[in-house]
Amino acid sequence: MEAIPFSTVASRHFLPCHVAHPSSRTPTKPLSTNWTGSSLCIGSSSRNSLFTRNVWSWVNLKSRNSSREKLFVVRAEMFGQLTSGLEAAWTKLKGEDVLTKENIAEPMRDIRRALLEADVSLPVVRRFVQAVSEQAVGVGLIRGVRPDQQLVKIVNDELVKLMGGEVSDLVFAKSGPTVILLAGLQGVGKTTVCAKLAFYLKKLGKSCLLVAGDVYRPAAIDQLSILGEQVGVPVYKEGTDVKPSQIARNGLEEAKKKKIDVVIVDTAGRLQIDKSMMEELKEVKKAVNPTEVLLVVDAMTGQEAAALVTTFNIEIGITGAILTKLDGDSRGGAALSVREVSGKPIKLVGRGERMEDLEPFYPDRMAGRILGMGDVLSFVEKAQEVMKQEDAEELQKKIMSAKFDFNDFLKQTRAVAKMGSMSRVIGMIPGMGKVTPSQIREAEKSLKIMESMINVMTDEEREKPELLAESPTRRKRIASESGKTEQQVSQLVAQLFQMRVRMKNLLGVMEGGSIPALNNLEESLKAEEKAPPGTARRKRRSESRRQFADAAAAAARPGPRGFGSKS
Ligand SMILES: Nc1nc2c(ncn2[C@@H]2O[C@H](COP(=O)(O)OP(=O)(O)OP(=O)(O)O)[C@@H](O)[C@H]2O)c(=O)[nH]1
Asked: Which parts of the sequence are annotated with region: Disordered (predicted)?
């Protein structure tokens, strides 16, 4: 790919920035793992003094042909640097059995380093690392979940907490128009956010009015008018000679008359926080008594964004922040620091220049994106949900004393069903990605068949599978009541005994256990996958015969009569 007139495109389509080919200014260590020959390294500097931090993003460039020109679309790998920094931590735990104070020391150092490199403020990093370490060492082992997966989950939960936990919704006035006052430094994207917000609220069914309160930059009024027209929202303006507080008050009156739901007030930005700016904002705030006062901050300014939110909150009292230009931020320091440093939530985030690029800030989704391990997280959560510690211990006792019965079998089967569609669950199990949909459907079907046979067993039969192993009459009755064949019933009985043996072996090998139904399923599916075409059925048949024989031997041991003897 040839060198691109990127600065021209960037200034119009992306951000004010300068460009350097990686060969000229490559950081000592690549920031993102997905470096390719077609990537460019962009640095950001601009008219805004807060951009002076040397923000580097590794970006992928995709070429797209438009009718008039060849346009290059820039897509920054979101928080790629942080993601790969954290990945280093998990890797160090591969092969460990449990999380201990000793074996988490190095991963914790990686996490600390990754967060500091992401420009998260130091006190926040310290608190975060301490919270994660405490939990990691204190947490009990979840069966079937590896320590590295467990640490991913702990870090994820702490990240969510750090970013405020829940999504912080916009608040609307109980009566009359809701007034949203937007404040922020110059160039952070306030004017654009006004229109994006109106567009977003329109989609929620609210009528809006935009108020042009930036009287110091005439172009801002024109910009707002154009954007207002673009999103189909009226703009209230009085030129540049009237005080912003007066314009805001008049705009609100106009909205009341027209029964408009939300008034969004744009205000002037400054290069830095100065006294007159704060005074003017206070005046505007007093004039319209806003429901929401939102500070628009640029994500690329990292922890400075968090400090700014704190200052504005102390000076004028704000209700939250809007983080813009998240699409250009590869580090994530602002998203991670704002809540913890200022105590104020991030309510919305801007992810691009288009009007639809504004969305609520979801701490859980953000944490998921940072970690890039959605599958592992869902798997750990589901495993936690299904295998509560007490259940697991009880089950372990039963297995060790060879008491695992059809009630447990059913419980496990239902637990799996509770986890949702089998296909989803299997997809979450590491190493199970290659299972085909037809194999999954097959497994789901056989679970249903098993359930129907267990449902018609008596309590005694469920508790003592030996009764079924010993009595063809009982098996015949179950077959006829469940509408299945005798062979299917025999297979089920054999399977239970085989599961007892397998689980006992498994428990002997590993300290924890695993979800038996899943294990069983995983193994049988894998076996089927490996079988050469045409042999699956034959193999299944001979396998079931072998299982039956195993079961017979097992059943013969405790009772006086062997499996298959007449009752
Ligand atoms: N990539 C990207 N660009 C954005 C985003 N939000 C705003 N911009 C761009 O940032 C630049 C500045 O936006 P404005 O809305 O003019 O900023 P402002 O805060 O009103 O600026 P002043 O009126 O000078 O204070 C524009 O080129 C916007 O298109 C975003 O979320 N992502």
From this structure: 460-485, 523-567
pLDDT at 62: 29
Out of 27-31, 132-136, 541-545, pick the least confident: 27-31
Rounded Cα–Cα distance for residues 146 and 99 (Å): 9
The ipTM (two decimal places) reads 0.95
Q: Give the Å distance between the CA of 324 and the centre of ligand 1.
A: 8
Q: Give me ligand 1 centre to Cα 168, in Å.
A: 23
Which residue among 55, 74, 326, 353 is best mutated to probe the pocket of ligand 1, counting the most ligand atoms within 8 A of its Cβ? Answer: 353
Both tokens assigned to 374 = 């959605």
| Structural contact between residues 496 and 552, judged by C-beta atoms closer than 8 angstroms | no
Chain-centroid distance of CA 245 in Å reads 41
Q: For 419-515, where are the alpha helices, taking DSSP H only?
A: 422-428, 437-455, 459-463, 465-470, 472-482, 486-509
**Buried b vs exposed e over 421-438: b needs ≥16 C-beta within 10 Å?**
ebeebbebbeebeebeee
Strands (E), 141-281: 178-184, 208-213, 235-236, 262-267
Q: Which residues lie closer than 8 Å to 29 by C-beta, 6 or more apart? A: none
Quickly tell me which residue has 């310290």 as its tokens.
Answer: 126
Q: Whose CA is nearest to atom 1 of ligand 1?
A: 352
With contact defined as beta carbons under 8 Å apart, do 494 and 547 qualify?
yes
List pLDDT tens digits, range 387-422. 555 565 666 666 566 677 888 777 766 665 554 445
Q: Which residue has the higher pLDDT, 450 or 545?
A: 450
